[in-house]
User: Fold this.
Amino acid sequence: NDSLTLGCVIYAVTLSLLYAASTLSHSVHRGVWRHRFRTADQICIFLLIAGNFTPYAMTCLTEGWRAAALPTMWAFAVAGIMMKLFLTKLHAVAPSFYLLMGWVPVQLLPEFFRHLGGEGVAWILAGGVAYSAGIWFLLNDQRRFHHAIWHLFTMLGSACHYVVALNYVVPRG
Assistant:
């Protein structure tokens, strides 16, 4: 179905953008490009949170819920991007916003449960917990290895949510 395909394309593009931006951010170690790539990396986190939600919304939510939830998530993403671009001194605010934005859809778990079942929802929650646990390491990344650990939690969260998309969302679409 077209909405499932669109949702999965949006998810795949935002996931790819995040990992590409992160790679660029960690490839340049000083200067203006380091700052630009780091900002792009952080902006892509907001895009991925909304992009990750998109195929779930397209396949699991009724038209009314989808019409409310999907624009709300993308509005959060735009707000987060604007914050990163224009409120550059508020470094600790972005991770809090990542958490808020990532957990807002929890109120829709009954809808997801109805369409994805308990296992699908468990994978969604496992990914959310992995991302959330990683935030502590991000906030303390000045400590040795903490930034790398943040990335391990990020990859774990991405893997969990990929399992949901591949094994629960696509087959039901």
